[in-house]
Amino acid sequence: MNPSYIDEEIVRRSLSHYNINPLYEYLSFAFGETETKRLFQIYKVGTSNKWNGATVFWQIDSNQKVRTGKVMLYDPKTGHRVKEPQAYVSWAHSELKLPDFNLSQCLFGEHLIPTNPNRKIFIVESEKTALIMCHFMPDYIWLATGGKNGSFKMDAMKILNGRDVILIPDLGAWEEWNNKASLLKGVCKSISVSDILEKSATEEQREQGLDIADFFLETKTPQQLLNEWCEENPFLRQLIDELDCEIIDE
What we know:
Elements: H1 8-14, H2 22-31, H3 33-43, E1 45-47, E2 55-60, E3 66-72, E4 89-91, H4 92-95, E5 121-124, H5 127-136, E6 141-144, H6 154-157, E7 164-167, H7 174-180, E8 190-193, H8 196-200, H9 203-208, H10 212-217, H11 222-232, H12 234-243
Parallel strand pairs: 5-6, 5-7, 7-8
Antiparallel strand pairs: 1-2, 2-3, 3-4
């Protein structure tokens, strides 16, 4: 059965109202609004009217067709998913009540593969992690399975044919992903599963199930430091705005 698709106009309309999107707010605090907007545009991340502005991670395939969108709510201060009093997760095709919808998931970020034919591909679990790592390591394609299992299925992985791929599972998932990597040996040009997190993590970090983005964010970015200073001293923000100052990363 062929996959069903979501109208591109629905996606286009969602690429706005970022002022009420909690994940956009969090990343803007960390990276600045200009950079956050760039990341959202690259991955075509949207804003839902569900839960007053939850994030929509559209799954767009290599033919630019929209398979679905995962809707999730984040805390604007911590950047973590809101899980209480319920798991705030839904699917765009369900919310749109599309009849006879045949869901066939693809990797989050798959639409970036055809236009970057020579770039090495990194695959992580979380869509948010792919966004964050695109900021820190922009010379690679960062894709997400949408969970430990998510779209980690042969049909979704065929798009990796002939590519150099590195899997970076969250802490605690290395063995499972290492076993799954055997599925890709006949597809990818090269495939490996990074164990750098497992080697470097503390016991506490293992219990938390951190991912690679958590490690990169442990050291505050210049934008985060500036925002914290401005919160303590609003006059500093006024001065920066009046002088039209910009942060320059060395």
